[in-house]
Amino acid sequence: MLFENLDIIKPIQKALKEEGYSKPTPIQAKSIPHLLEGKDLLGCAQTGTGKTASFAIPILQAIYNDQKSSIGKRTIKAVVLAPTRELAIQIGESFTAYSKHMDIKNIVIFGGVSQNPQTKALKEGVDILIATPGRMLDLYSQKFINLSKVKYFVLDEADSMLDMGMIHDVKRIISHLPKVRQNIFFSATMPSEISKLANSIFKDPIKVEVTPVASTTETIKQSMYFVSKKQKRALLIDILKDKSIKSALVFSRTKHGANKITTDLLNVGIEASAIHGNKSQNARQLALNNFKEGKVRVLVATDIAARGIDVDELSHVINYDLPEVAETYVHRIGRTGRAGHSGTAMSFCSMEERDLYKSIEKLIKKKIELIKDHPYHGSSNDVSQLEPKKDNRRDNRGSSKRNTSSKGNNKNWNSNRRKKPANKKTDNK
What we know:
Layout: H1 10-18, H2 26-36, E1 41-44, H3 51-66, E2 78-81, H4 85-98, E3 106-109, H5 116-124, E4 128-131, H6 133-141, E5 152-156, H7 158-163, H8 167-175, E6 182-187, H9 192-201, E7 206-209, E8 221-226, H10 232-240, E9 248-251, H11 255-267, E10 272-275, H12 281-292, E11 298-301, H13 303-306, E12 316-319, H14 326-333, E13 344-349, H15 354-364, E14 369-370, H16 392-396, H17 410-415
Parallel strand pairs: 1-6, 1-7, 2-4, 2-5, 3-4, 5-6, 8-13, 8-14, 9-11, 9-12, 10-11, 12-13
Helix pairs in contact: 2-3, 3-4, 6-8, 14-15
């Protein structure tokens, strides 16, 4: 199927062609026809599946057709909510690209920057508002935003908003919208609270789902490295010395960790930048732009900051820390191997993360290749079960009944020893 088979108007078709798009992705093919008919839609799709165009094209087409009968100043006709600044900016860029041959204006508003340029643009009039919930509510309360003419409402990455504690703000925004409108939700997963919210506002929605969460990993080469927590940085540096790794997105669990990893890489001459919530918007955008343009080879990010990062030719994703939630692993590695390109995902697993590793394999229903041939595959890890190896030295000089453990877990080993009146220092070595 081609875009020209989807009853899309010529100005949009021309823009799509200029962007190099001729064939819709599965989510686009399933969603666009229903949205062009004005139906509500609940879509289950992850980042990288083309969901932005799924809602942007029908909204632009509807606004373009309505322009023939509209007069006077531009009013906001569509509202798109996104969880992060980066994703909001990316959505805005897509709307701008697809509407280049139409007289339709969009604006992206988010916090962390001066509101003056945003309020100025709102006063001049816009057709489409793309926003993060907090800044939108702020400007609405200041009466810079009029929602009385809104006909189309999009909630993108709804599950992320729930995770980030934004759902209350989302509900407040919804309460200010006209009752009669088209509703569009996209979410990578469908938590019960998102389902309840959808059921409370949707009218006979069309439900579309593509690429079940586990199958997105099939086209990506995955590998797992067992390594102690203290040796992760050394392993990362060793891997990144390979110049064939053109670009790498490295995931850290914390902001502090992202900063430390970046500093360590820079100290050994590897160009890297960090992106997380404590960075200013300008710093985050500069780091992302430098990464996209190839000026920086490594981008170190937290999960929340990575929302909206979309790099077409990202060669590697490296999970420096395994995520607490298995589905997040799939979202992370799904940022590589897009648009027909090959992708590689590497993950580091310490003893403390063994349960997370097992839950990931259970979710994706496949074994991840274990890389043993690396200098930091220490003897403290039992490769077969990801459990501590026996301390043979102690085993040989003690009873066979002793319950032994690894050097990294001496506390447990000592708890099963016969108590001695010996000094306590040796117990905690």
